[in-house]
Design brief:
The protein has 248 residues and is mostly helical. It has ten helices and two strands, in the order H-H-H-H-H-H-H-H-E-E-H-H. It has a two-stranded antiparallel sheet with strand order 1-2. A hairpin with a 2-residue loop joins strand 1 and strand 2. Helix 1 runs parallel beside helix 10 and helix 7 runs antiparallel to helix 8. It is globular and about 60 Å long. The protein starts with 10 loop residues before the first helix and ends with a helix. The mean pLDDT is 93.
Length: 248
């Protein structure tokens, strides 16, 4: 009798999970606003995507192409995103999440380039300046999740090793980002006569479970699937918007 041995979660599985959770969150924001559970589980999507952006940088064979793909799909996604969030083709007050990831990816690339100079003081200076600039740029540009979203990707870049102290660093940083910076909406829960407040954005911390179970293996991969993952974002937004308009 063969015994089942869990080998962890592949990159393919993380992609499918993140896209499903993102779909749930966007369905709540449009078609099913009364189903709060959809947005609660949907909170986990962004940290998983942020992790995969940082992970993708370390595995890509061509950083320029990686940056270009993000830039191209950020432009493509802008109109569907604007239709969902602003009911208009042009909506300058909130930008789609791929711009968030693009800023983070450019920052990671900048930090990595300073490492080649082998001057630790320069790398530290660039890291500090980049973190501050990213938070300001993400907030001023009003990208999705604002500056905190850009920092989420950097957290997974700085704590990318699979060591206990990196897991602790991820947990602490994500708790600060999601509970303090992004936190705002609370649920009141009564247990045994005691009232507790649960931050809705705090559900994002549950994303660390599949992230920590990541095996480091790619799993199923093909060029069509890679581009499907990119295209899923604007396509599902556009489809949801069209259905939303039909039923409203």
């Amino acid at each position: 009798m063969q015994h089942f041995k869990f080998r962890g979660i592949s990159s393919f599985t993380l992609h499918i999970l993140a896209m499903t959770l993102m779909l749930c969150d966007h369905l709540w924001a449009t078609l099913f606003p009364a189903q709060e559970w959809l947005t609660c589980i949907g909170r986990m999507a962004f940290p998983i995507f942020a992790f995969m952006i940082a992970e993708g940088y370390s595995h890509t064979s061509n950083v320029r192409n990686y940056i270009f793909r993000l830039f191209a799909f950020a432009i493509i996604s802008e109109v569907p995103f604007n239709l969902i969030y602003g009911s208009s083709v042009i909506f300058p007050f909130h930008q789609n999440v791929l711009w968030t990831f693009l800023i983070a990816l450019l920052s990671i690339n900048l930090i990595e380039k300073t490492k080649t100079a082998k001057k630790r003081w320069l790398t530290c200076l660039v890291v500090i300046a980049t973190v501050l600039a990213d938070f300001l740029l993400g907030t001023i540009a009003m990208v999705d999740y604002f500056g905190a979203g850009v920092l989420t990707v950097l957290v997974f870049y700085f704590f990318r090793e699979r060591k206990w102290w990196c897991f602790v660093g991820q947990l602490i940083c994500l708790a600060i980002i999601n509970l303090n910076i992004l936190g705002g909406y609370y649920y009141s829960i009564s247990i045994a006569g005691y009232e507790f407040s649960v931050v809705q954005q705090g559900f994002a911390l549950l994303a660390l479970i599949p992230i920590w179970l990541y095996s480091g293996h790619q799993g199923y991969h093909s060029k069509p699937f890679k581009y499907f993952c990119y295209a899923f974002y604007p396509l599902h937004l556009l489809i949801i918007f069209l259905i939303w308009q039909c039923v409203s």
